[in-house]
Amino acid sequence: MTNPKRSPIRWGRIGILVGAVALAGILVWAFLPEPVLVEESTAISGNVVVEAVEDGKTRVLDRYVVSAPVTGNLARSALRVGDAVLPGTVVARLLPMDAPLLDARTRAEIRARLSGALDGRRVSEARAHAAELAAADAEHELIRLRQLAVGGGVSPRDLESAEALARVRGEEATSARFAVEVAAHEAEVAQALLRRAPSDGSGMDLSSPVNGVVLRLFQESGGPVQAGTPVLEIGDPAQLEVVVDVLTADAVRIAPGAPARLERWGGPDALIAHVVRVDPAAITRVSALGVEEQRVDVVLSLDSPHASRARLGDGFRVDVRMEVARQDGVLVIPEAAVFRRDGGFATWVDEDGRATLRMVDVGLRDGVRVEIRSGLAAGDVVVVHPSDTLVEGARVKVP
Amino acid sequence: MSSDTSPVSVLQARRLTRTYRMGEVDVLALRGADMDLYEGELVVLLGPSGSGKSTLLNLLGGLDVPTSGSLKWRDHDLTSATDAALTRYRREHVGFVFQFYNLVPSLTARENVALVTDIAPDPLDPDEALDLVGLRSRRDHFPSQLSGGEQQRVAIARAVAKRPDLLLCDEPTGALDVATGRLVLDVLARVNRELGATTALITHNAAIAALADRVFTMADGRVATVTSNATRAKSSDIQW
Amino acid sequence: MVTSLTKKMMRDLVGQAVQVGTIAVVIGCGVAAFVSMRGTWKSLELARDLYYERYRFGDVFVHLERAPLAVRARLEDIPGVALVETRLVEPVRLVVSAAETPPPGQVMSLPSDGRPRLDDLRVYKGRPLESGRDDEVLILSAFAEAHGLALGDTLPLVMHGHQFQTRIVGYADAPEFVYAIAPGEFMPDPTRFGVVWMDERAVAAAYRMDGAFDDVVLRLQPGADPEGVLESVDDLLEPYGGLGAVLRDKQISNKLLTQEMGQLRALASTIPIVFLAVAAFLVQVALGRMVQLQRVPIATLKAFGYTRGEIARHFFAMIAVVGVVGAVMGLGVGTWFGRAMTDLYRDFFALPTLSFRLDGELVLVSLGVSMLAAISGALGTVLQIANMPPAEAMQPPAPPTYSRGLIERCGGLAMLGPAARMAARDMLRRPLRLMLSIAGIAAATAVVVIGRFGEDAIDAMEGVIFDHVQAEDISVTFAGEVPDRAVRALGQLPGVNLVEGQRAVAARFSSGGVYRDGALLGWTPDPHLRRLIEWPFHTVAAPEQGLVLTAELVRVLGLTVGDLVEVELLGRGLPTVMLPLAGSVREPAGLQGHVGNDTLARLLGGSRLATHAFLAVDPQYETEVVARLSQMPSVLGVSRKSAVLASFRAQTRETRSAFVWIASLFGAALAVGIVYNNARVALSARARELASLRVLGFTRSEVSGIVLGEQAVHVLIGLPVGLFAGHQAAVAMMSTVDPETWRFPVVIATRTYGFAAAVVLGAALISWLFVFRQVSRLDLVAVLKTKE
Questions:
Q1: Cβ-based contacts of B139 with chain C (< 8 Å)
Q2: How many independent structural domains does chain C possess?
Q3: Domains of chain B from N-terminus onward
Q4: Interface contact A4, partner B, CB < 8 A
Q5: What is this model's ipTM?
Q6: Same domain? C772 vs C661
Q7: pLDDT at C377 over 60
Q8: B84 touches chain C (CB under 8 A)
Q9: CB of B96 closer than 8 Å to CB of C696
Q10: Do C641 and C511 lie in a common domain?
Q11: Domain of C190?
Q12: How far apart are CA B233 and CA B231, in angstroms?
């Protein structure tokens, strides 16, 4: 008969209470700020490389211009650009214009020229000798250091410098030898002219002093030429250097020896080169945007083996990326994750799904990556391209 | 039967008045009624319409609050009670039976009774209550499926299921024919006997007064006379 | 006796003031929505048509590279062409001030001798150009106001690399610049859309176009075949570098204006219907109850000889009053909203005569639909009561019959106590009413969702575009094409951390006879600044071979990966190429093809060139960089992302909060209307049994709980349905945007759903407070004594 004090209304009331609490809970949950969708990246050890990028041109290192030694009638050239020539290959024929090729004045001129050429030959021989000595020196030094290196007595940097120096000196020696040959040739030409009999109508052959390839023909068709007119240019396209002009502000930061990469030259892979020389004097140029700029030529030497760039010729256009500054093995995050805050730099770090502001000390920046000196650890996850609506503690999520 | 030798007065009403305001006019429905009700007795309130019997019953049952006077249930003062207190009073102590049954049409007979048993502290089982009125077999029927008399009996079952101290009936047979009316009165008498609930019955039909222990005749908002019956008649004995 | 009836009607209405009020408010909301939106649409249409008419807006537009004036006669000869207007339209740099980023600008020529025959100007301040003077200009008024340029100010122009000093003599507007948005932009920004008009001889001299023209506007003859004319024009102008003729529907300003108007019109037709339908439902419920209560008086009237017609008319009149009150409120509020909306539009659209007009049609339709809503709800009940014989009407109505429904038999109610079962059976007895209530709550929720979802879409869009697609700080437009060196030179300015170039060429993409005009873009490999992004921000790389197309373009042309696409590069001497489709990208705006920069250079037979550059700039140097860029002759325009973003936010902020407020109010009004009405009617209908419960000793809150429990079920089911419906409605709204201009996935933040739920729950709670009050005032005695 007794009835436990059970009331359906009470049960219903409990139900309503539970329902109300549940509803309130749902509402609170609904109004919680939703996690913001973000893009993220992990801080890892990497490189930051700042490069100066310009477009440059290739240039054959050693080129020799064959010019008409005297005024005469140049026969039509049988050679074409790209033809290979050896020392002594006849490259052009000069026929007499009319009777006396040589009068007293001309002879005197030629004699003077011969004299100059002989002097020139002597000078270049001396230079070549000096250059060879220097090359040999550098080579000895390199051998010595290499031996020391085996025992660990030499720092790798010193070894590298020595190698670079040996290479450079070797090239200089080659150039100097080339110059000697050129000078010798000049002397021969002058002598040949002098030896010539006044009424010798056989004309003269101009020959190539060097091994190479015809780079340019200045005069294709035959016709009268004055003394000194360039006829053709010969060079060895395997020996290429690259010239690029660079803003003076960048030139200051490019050191000889700096590594560089050549891209978009037409081949599949980038080529390796290094800076040989930065010209000391600047020239004024008008930029593509119509603004005047001071620019300086920088010369680079190709390091990639000839085989990988066999088709690369003279005057070809390349994109040159010269290293200006570099940091290896440093903590790196994308530039797009870093922004200015309170006079310094900051980034948002995703800690367990919440955005935390961290001030960071920034080192080298190359426009795409940033070196982080302090403030982050490897493995930290940062938010890339953060919205300016992010606040401390906001929930974030990767879609 | 007459009351015990040492009667316990469960309800005391002294100089109860109740005034209603109808627009511009004040209607004095009760003008100073006095009454004592004793435990376990069956009383009838007689009187013509407008005599204030319904008003008095409503006050006794805590459905309304007197304008002045005092009303005490055992030791509780009902005149100054709040609505919540009156609700509790009704919930725990009072059972009502109305002329027009007032069952909840969307609940079955049993459920109508269960409405009350669920909130009462010490109720009867709903089926037992229905047994008392002889309608257990109809317990799953909706009011629309029951006759007038059956509905009234269910109402009675509902009223007594909580084992009320006080059972108040306002014209319980008013809407019923004679035979059904007799049946209902029998039930009321039986409930009064078996459960010992103090029962007050309003009717304008004087013949019914013979069933009671005492009869209060009301006129003009006051209790005019109080008479006692030596014995309680049976419903079959009376005619109306 | 009609007057007594009328008095009765008025008193009845006043007696139920709150209930009647809520219904009138719901009607009012529907009418307000209708009046404001349709009224604004009509005003826009009127203003636009007038404007185009008055200033002779053309039918066909085409830009070309250069053609001699003699060609004009051949254009006139094309069948179907009624009028021809040739002119010069050139890019120009407007040196607005030393400090500001120079926006991209256009200079247009005006005939020296009189007004242009087509696409005329409206000079509304100052004076027209004086013939023969080469140092005067008219300037687009929105631009001038945005930059504070006054009449008489000097405005230096850089035309074709040379600077000219000109004086502003007048402010002008033109029908072809109603919607001032530059191609590729997302929002109209008057500060960045500059147009000046100058004497044709001066323009020709500056750009060396003497004796030539490079832009054409045509008027078609009535009944002409537009496609045929376009073809003929294209054929004729091809050798002169024609970029493709278009009709009005593709002219940028008109296209966007028409789209916007189309959306508005669609909204105006759909949203009010929801409100009015709910209103009809509420009327049906409320009036049904009221009539039930008045059975006896009505029966009495009939007994006294009132005809059916008179009684029916009486009730219809009462309903009509509710309808009229609602309509009047709606007209008032709607006019106010409409004016505000029109004002907002005036900021976007340079339509001089735009003003909100409440015309007779709007008023009549409003009244009509309000009446229709109100009366349709009342129809059933009134006819029923009018037809009932008086004797029957005198009787109390048969108590509602209950039985064990299907759900019960399955034991669905077993868990509930009797009180809860009361509520449940009552609900299930009238399933239609239950469903309509739930539908109404769902509608209220959906309205709020739609109001807010615009915010979510804009936020998402802002995030994708300004944080991911446009990762640059500054974007530069060059006057023409510049070599790689120039782009690199920009990178060497102090403060510039990174620079990337891009080349854009106008192109026509075709396949299988279908074509679309767009742009072909050449990308730097691995871009870090401006990027090609797919939602949400998945980066897509330009392919090494072939091209990637905007996904919508792939769909329209019916292509699959590997198919060949015909790409006609537009411009004199530019080739048409076939490229294989390498992939598609779901980018947000425009129709584009994407290839690598090298591919594009190869296709165009030259070296790598750029038409645009994007820079990442240290914030401390930004101003300086901008200043230096502004001085470069080959730079046509400079744009700072931070400024564009700020402008975007400022513009969208205005519209967003207004919309949210209005939608929330309307949704809340609907919710209150439904819940309150239902609860009131329930209270009224079940007053007796509720009073019985009170008598039995149930407390006020227990009894309220029973009534409110039912309402709570309506709300709890209606809410999730409404959230879903809101999402679907958002999808439908998004689909009205032309997919060839804009594409965006529907993004609804959880917060929006929560907000909608909160509004509707809040409204329901307010209604429940009313109910609770009513229950407290249940006159137990009176209720129990009545027969009915």
A1: none
A2: 3
A3: 9-103+163-237 (3.40.50.300)
A4: no
A5: 0.75
A6: yes
A7: yes
A8: yes
A9: yes
A10: yes
A11: 57-255
A12: 6
